[in-house]
Design a protein that fits this description.
It is found in: Cell membrane. The chain has helices at 10-23, 31-39, 43-60, 103-139, 141-155, 159-167, 175-186, 188-201, 205-212, 217-229, 231-253, 265-272, 281-308. It starts with 9 loop residues before the first helix and ends in a 5-residue tail after the last helix. The chain is built from 13 helices and no strands. Helix content is 66%, strand content 0%. The chain has a single domain, classed as MetI-like (MetI-like fold, Orthogonal Bundle), CATH 1.10.3720.
Length: 313
Amino acid sequence: MPDLTDKKSPTEQAEGAAVAAAAKPEKARSLGSDAWEDLRRRPIFLISAVLILVLIVMSIAPGLFTSVDPRAGDLTHDYLRAPNYSHLFQGDWFGYDIQGRSIYARVVYGARASIVVGICVTAAVTIVGGLIGMLAGYFGGWVDTLLSRLTDVFFGIPLLLGCLVVLNAFTERTVWSVVFALTSIGWTQMARVMRGSVITVKQADYVTAAKALGAGTGRILFKHVLPNAIAPVIVVATIALGGYIATEATLSFLGIGLQDPTISWGIDIDSAQKAIRQAPFALFFPAGMLSLTVLAFIMLGDAVRDALDPKLR
């Protein structure tokens, strides 16, 4: 006969299932998912993200925002004409510059050079500086000494002055020459941040366990160290992106950065300051767009920093 002593009532079975469900561990959440959940609730992140998205779309497809040729000038009729809001989408929103060109069209098309320079320089300095800092922090010893002293040498060169020297070596200064100049001088900050983060991470138990299990140096660096040390670098890179855009505009304003026929906010600011008394609006709009772009990236960096740093939550 079957043994009926081990049978449980429906109530006992339900209680047992509830206990088992409570004892089951929840799925671990990563730092990235926690940061994203935090960012979604921050108005400063949403505002800056929308502004940056608009700027990126503007740089990729400026024709969506204006049909006016930004290089077409008419000195006979449109010389320093003030903004006219009665003709929408005709180039009159921001007036005309000293060469009779639509300021609105040039502001729209000028976003491309600034965004490309900012993103490319940020990616390049993060890769170069991050790799140097990771090697210095992980290996230590003479490797750390050599790479740290090299970083100190480049860190002692002012960014703007160093870029002036590098760009003077180019006969034709394009977007890519500016990217190269900013990258060759600006990687030191990323290297220092990554080095300090790696020195902290390499002492963790999971790195020690990976070494004990015989994992190779490359696997330890890119599988265990880099993912856990990259957060401070991401924060610094996001904030620095706006600074690189401002530096590009400064170089173009000084006449050592981008040159015609490239359209740049720095070039337009330089052109407008010659007639600032007669037409201050020609200076206000490109300078205001530059300030808004830099502010958007700084706001984004602040929001990312607060989300990735558990101490600030």
